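Quick start: load a record and inspect it. Here is Xylose isomerase:
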Amino acid sequence: MKLEIFRTLWGYSASKAQALDELLEAGFDGMEARLPLEASERAEFSAFLKANGVGYISTVFTAYDVLPEQSASPTEHLLDLDKKLAWAAELNPRFVNVLAGNDRWPLAQQVEFFGQAMTLARKHGQVCSFETHRSRSLFNPWLTLELIRQLPDLRFTSDISHWVVTCERLLNDPADDLSAFVERVHHIQARVGYDQGPQVPHPAAPEYARELAFHQQHWEAIWRSQQARGYQVSTLTPEFGADGYLHHLPFTNVPVADLWSLNVWMARTEREHFDRFNHSVLQ
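Running the structure step on this input writes:
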């Protein structure tokens, strides 16, 4: 199994051509980015991807944006997903990373919603990987595990930093058995969170060594599971981001770290981590 690392375009404002130059120089393999909602933007992005042979992971939000429209019903979320999966197909993504649903829905509604979402994925011939994210249906591990019990074919994008915040602890207690989830993870978003936030100021800082170690243990468990499932390629996106995630100094509002440098550090660190993992498996 090999590791392919994708660059997130979250918070990036320069051109995609510049983003491509930077990611290639830093040793990334492709891009993970939001699906353009305008037809002209999709056509332009599709031509760019084809011309440059860029691997692309498409990110889709049901019912508006990261924070869903609170009045939107499950039916409205599904209609939105149906439309956006058709649009995503225009860009021929590796797969579609979906931030789906709403954390306010009761379990029965969640089960019905995800069952229909998987039907839509099959209709459009897309692999849908549903991301663990606050404000969305998969905001905590316990509801997710219950969904798995009822819908074992679900596949996931693991951004476990969200669960660390939601549960206000590293999920490393013997009672925190996430194995059923790990066995269904398709994609990793590699950001290091801590008990009071989804993003540490810098993952290399010694004061966050415990948090980094926990996340790396989780990612390694996913690699081990993917290898057992016959994956030839594992995908990972370092996803340190802006929008309140990146810490700023009070009064001056100066960022405590450079966002691209954080993601480059994470990419290099996980490339080395994966190489050590592969070496240990081969021994």
